[in-house]
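Entry 12.
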Amino acid sequence: MKKLLMTTALTALVAGPVAAQEIEEFRIGVLGGENAQDRLNSMACYQEKAEALLGVPVRIFTPADYDGVIQGLLGGSLDMAWLGASGYAKLYLSDPDVVEPVMVKTNTDGSYGYYSVGFARADSGIESIEDLEGRQFAFGDPNSTSGYLIPSIEIPSTYDVTMESGDFFGEVVFVGGHEQTIVAVANGSVDAGVTWADGLGEWSEGYNSGALRKASDAGLVDMNEMVEIWKSNPIPEGPIVLATNLPERVKLDVTTLTASLPYMDPDCAYSFFAGEALGVQPINHDAYTSIIEARRSKM
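Predicted 3D structure (tokens):
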């Protein structure tokens, strides 16, 4: 598979910017989860490579929340995004024809799953969900898979609690995204929170990839001061989606550029994929049917 993706990537990259004849610009939406400038910085190298390949301006949009990207795709003002599985489910349930999932990030072990991870300060005395009785529990965004959907289903079913403030948890709050959740727990603003990680590598480094790894790399958190208190069942990594109405040549160019990143520019790949990753592999709608049904059940 890696050889196939690499061959296809090189073929497309050598072919040159034919796409400029078909589109005037290419617009990428980046989900919330960290501040807008950090999101722009993470995408800068990809933006530069995409502009050189497509021959048109590539614009990066960083809405304040997940729904901003979803609405941008629904309204036709965005051409590409890396969605969470729950975000894709909401998009599909709103309009099944507006985008197509084409790629998924592949972990260093070849899988494309990840986890919702509950965490707290190591000095808080919190070691499990049971220890959160009467305390604050923070979530990122209502449209986040790991930041809300999955824990809101798995935690109540496992611990026989609800996610209503004042029932078991003292207060259930949304703080805006993964980075905000990590910072809020680290500085003691909330007692515990959830975020996403690939679950591979060392906890002390924030695992190999995910929000904890990005926050650790950025110096926002010392993972030795944090403790894991809960981990979900494996979640299918969200898809990179493209607008269905894009010219096929543009879809091919963007797909193969993304597939080529680990070979062309490992540092750019590390930035784009939020940590260490093998690259991407093809994905389609069928991988997300269970998440769509979970999302439907919450509507």
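Annotation: The CA atoms of residues 158 and 225 lie 27 Å apart. Residues 36-54 form the longest helix (19 residues).
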